[in-house]
Amino acid sequence: MRLHILNTPDSLSRCKAVVENSDSLILIEDAVVLSPSIFSDIDTGTAVYVLLDDIQRRGLKTPSNIKALDYIQFVDLCAAHPQCLSW
Prior knowledge:
By secondary structure, this protein is of the alpha/beta class. It is built from 3 helices and 5 strands. A 5-stranded parallel sheet has the order 4-3-2-1-5.
């Protein structure tokens, strides 16, 4: 059970080969632009989150199948995973 932290759109191509169903993925910074189409690139069983401040700053809406997190929830998510990988 790992948390993959993506901060650029290009980071998805590097991490998708190692993402497993038991993993979680959070989109932050510029990677939030991937939110509308993320499930076309990864398994729908993977839990996907987006950082609320980052998606709002880019004028995007959070898709219904992705949970938006504030900074405190982001820290809690990191603490809940034994391994966090930044891409």
